[in-house]
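Running this now, will post back.
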Amino acid sequence: MGIAGVAGAVLIPLDRPGLGWVLAGAVAAGAVFLVDRRARRTAGGSAESTSDVGSRAPGRQEQVGSRTTPQSEAGVGAGGTEQVRAEDGRASALPEVDDQPAAGARIENESARPGRQSSTETTARTEASAGDADRDGGALGNWGRIWWSALALALLAVGAFRAAGWLFTLCVLAACVAGSLAVVGRRSANGVWYDVIAVPIESFSALPWMYTALSRVRGSSRGNSWRAAGSVAVTVALLAVFVPLLGGADATFARLLASVTPEVDVASIVRWIVLFAVVGLGTLGAMYLLAGPPAAVSDEGDSEIGRSLRRLEWALPVGALTTLFALFVGAQFVALFGGDRYVQRTAGLTYAEYARSGFWQLSIVSMLTLAVILIVLRWAAKDSAADRMWLRILLCALSALSLVIVASALGRMWTYQQAYGFTVLRLLVESCELWLGVVYLLVIAAVLRLKRTWLPRAAIGTAMATLLALAVLNPDGLVADKNIDRWQHGKDLDTEYLSTLSPDIVPAIERLPEPLRAEVLDPIRAELDDDTWQSWNLSRARAR
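Update: finished.
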């Protein structure tokens, strides 16, 4: 927690995208990984030692497993006692040996909380809990954690290449969600809404856990702590004396010190404290979750409990909606092939005005239809083969027609932008609509399988992948490029709008002649100040 907190305070440039964001994320991820690996190795070695004792002395293993001491019931483990945390849908077996807890082991007062099992009942579940932990740490769970961790770091790395503040804000939020999903591992029984915010939620629950652990460490290694504190104090004193002397002796060394030493003022101190607290608490919450992961959801498919919609109750409205969508899609094809002349004759609008008038309505229809499909997939009965057949036919047909509506909305927005100009907001909305089309493809797969437990995480993953792809495409630069293309075909160019975008547009603006190029670039460069090495950014470096 301390290492990650210090890295966050020192490396993160809070006011802008920069290299320090991904460096701080890598340090925090590495710290959590190393602590978790050490804890698992310690727990595994302790479990083997306990198993050896039980095999050498028949009946001894049961005696040790059922032994309850006042310390263990108070939340402090005795030597050789295997402690188990089983609360609120969580189960984890983490052994301790010789008063040295595993680095990730949680210590809690089991007997003081209502609804807790007795020591004997908890011990009886140790083997099953350990099996759950093994499965959670198996190949599938590890690959899932690797995927979400890599995605989180890739999103944070956007800050080193793209200067658009709105884009990087979305990337940071998405990286936090990906990090939480990486820590949780397999889908938990608490649901996807818990999984995406599990780390910040459990960060506050982890504070008593940390306090108890630190109290035990202070009691067992107080002498070592004083020695370490003395060493740190001597180091600080030596640096405080020699650094100013060497800086005054050589101007080159003084400039080097100035470049790596942050300015110390009240605002900087407050920022460091906030960043240390946020990153440190997030790291602590991640280790707390890894020490006692939430119970995983069953992989046996969707539960049939609570299904109440018979075939007639859901098939009639879904069938009516499917018929309506089929008629609408037919009209869309007529307008598409009829072109501008047909639209002017039937609707009295130009094709660009026709595209503008329907995009938002079609987007709302797409989202509402998705909600209808998910509700029916959740509550419709699947008792008979006929029920399952009709469910697949109608929901797949509705999803396929919705895909056509999504494609129509995308086409309308593209036509509208070609007529009236490209903006970042319009491009972002278009990207969301494209992601919605991907979600419909996932829904079709879920309907064919009649299993939906994997769908929420898949939708979240594709949303993050879409955001990462958008960052690779450089949205601000793409908007500037397309507007310049329109200008080259005789359309107006809004240089005032382009000058409000980020330095990401500089490569595209180089295509403009003077004085248009100066009208766009001068306001952007006027707002650029010097970057520290933590806030280094490729786009801002190119703009200078």
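Confidence is low (pLDDT under 50) at residues 55-137. More later if anyone needs it.
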